Amino acid sequence: MKIKSNKAIIGTGIFTAVAASLCCITPVLALIAGSSGIASSFSWMEPARPYLIGFTILVLGFAWYQKLKPKTAEEIECACEEDEKPSFWQSRKFLLIVTIFAALMLTFPYYSSVFYPDNRKEVVVVNQFDIQTVELDIEGMTCEACDSHVAYAAQGVDGVLEAKADHKTGKAEVKFDQTKTSREEIIKSIDATSYRVVE
Questions:
Q1: In degrees rounded to 5, what are phi and psi of residue 36?
Q2: Every domain of the chain and the residues it spans
Q3: 47 near 143, Cβ under 8 Å?
Q4: What CATH architecture applies to the domain 121-198?
Q5: How many CB atoms lie under 10 A from the CB of residue 43?
């Protein structure tokens, strides 16, 4: 019975850690898979993220408590199950691996930008009068991973000199050479990620 409850606790910890970061992991997975249209499909989960993080911490804390708590006198007397070594799945080592995995998932938004290749253009001489800057309202951005995804999509357009996005304000600022591209092309590129430019 104890074996099943330990597996359930650890499984719940993994599940909630992944669920808490699903909205942030999806854009990176979409980029890697080459299907950026699904990037914001889990952004609806962002409001539940703090609760899922809290639940993950509680579940893993309880699992560690169960693993480290001192044995009762009754458990010491009945050492019948203790004779055989616990399997890897019931060991502290496995719980440590699960805890590290959960921590990596929960902190993913803060380091997700390392997964986006640098697609900035080489320095090009551009006539100052041809440079235009637009500020776009973006719908669906919820974390730093979203910022990176939107900026990456905008920078992929030929003629874009610089692009920044901020999920806190819901805006993206794009500087581009209007002789090579247009506002509409940039919007089209961002909309292809499934984040939407609100006009």
A1: -65, -5
A2: 2-113, 121-198
A3: no
A4: 2-Layer Sandwich (3.30)
A5: 22
Angle between helices 144-155 and 2-33 (to 10 degrees): 20
User: Helix 49-68 vs helix 2-33: angle between axes, to the nearest 10 degrees?
Assistant: 140
pTM for the model stands at 0.59
- Order the strands of the 160-166 sheet from edge to edge: 160-166, 171-177, 131-139, 196-198
Sign of the CA dihedral running 23, 109, 11, 64: negative
**Residue in this structure with the two tokens 């606790």, named with its chain if needed:** 9
DSSP code string of 147-182: HHHHHHHHHTSTTEEEEEEETTTTEEEEEEETTT--
* Tens of pLDDT, residues 140-175: 888 887 888 888 889 889 888 889 999 899 999 999
pLDDT surpassing 90 at residue 99:
no
Unique residue bearing structure tokens 């940039």: 186
Closest CA to 16 of 94, 109, 102, 112: 102
Burial class (CB in 10 A: 0-12, 13-18, 19+), 44: exposed
**What amino acid is encoded at 26 in this protein?**
T
Which residue is associated with the tokens 């440590």? 96
> What is the sign of the dihedral through the CA atoms of 60, 61, 62 and 68?
positive
The whole-angstrom separation of Cα 94 and Cα 84 is 17
